[in-house]
Amino acid sequence: MEHCICVTCGSQFAQSEREPASCPVCEDERQYVGRDGQRWTTLDRLRLTHRNRIAAEADGLLGIGTEPAFAINERALLVQSPGGNLLWDCIALVDDETVERVRAAGGIRAIAISHPHYYSGMVEWSRAFGGVPIHLHADDREWVMRNDPVIDHWQGETLPLWDDMALVRCGGHFAGGTVAHVPRLSGGRGALLTGDVIQVAMDNRHVGFMRSFPNYIPLSARAVRRIAEAVAPYRFHAIHGAWWGRSIAIGADAALRRSVERYIAALEGAYDDR
Ligand SMILES: [Zn+2]
Ligand SMILES: [Zn+2]
After folding, report:
1. 196 CA to centre of ligand 2 in angstroms
2. 69-93: b (≥16 Cβ within 10 Å) or e
3. Hey, which residues does 151 pair with through a beta bridge?
4. Are the C-beta atoms of 247 and 58 separated by less than 8 Å?
5. Residue 45 belongs to what H/E stretch?
6. Ligand nearest to the CA of 120
7. Least distant ligand from the CA of 12
8. Surrounding residues of ion ligand 2, Cβ less than 5 A
9. What digits encode the pLDDT tens for the residues 135-191?
């Protein structure tokens, strides 16, 4: 009996006698099954071949990512906050060295995840830190491959957390697609942690939006406007995306507005024949 982990998306599954027949997260049009077919691993095997790198992303914000790259290769973020640390997004690998280093950085009070592609090893992470709650938007409930009583399926548009942090439902990439607002980051000017619900572009000056990044399925203008409206009430100077180095350090609120305008203009034909 093992908890299998999908090699392509990093989702850990409920315990089973045999490998699951397929991975619903990867069968979905937003992800893909690798061209060698569905493959599985386990946490024990992953611990033999991979380790986690922990490094500062910004003041009060640590990145935690796996090396060499594994699955979607997102890195989690540990928000260091006086009332307790928030683990934002998650990765499949957790090992003794990681637990020790995260404890030394103040541990974890709760886990919150932007969308199902990063649910990954969330239950293992929760257990490693004493069974801390995991906040997931209820609209994405069907994508939880390993259920557990520590999961809080929150509903509605916002979930206030401690130290004035909040989870904000944006939808778009997934119905329950969520970002986190952390007012104390960026020197008190605020930051959004966005996963790929709001995707930081390679130029670190714009963001983009997609239903599927690997399969190039765009979102509608309406969906993108709704994302912009959902975060409009919040003050933020920085946006931290899902991968190392994908951050807009200054003026991220203006960058978001500019990017939304550019995206909608492109859909409406602004670049046709140019
Ligand atoms: Zn998968
Ligand atoms: Zn995604």
Report:
1. 6
2. ebbbebbbbbbbbeebbbbbbbbbb
3. 134
4. yes
5. helix 43-49
6. 1
7. 1
8. 117, 196
9. 999 999 999 999 999 999 999 999 999 999 999 999 999 999 999 999 999 999 999
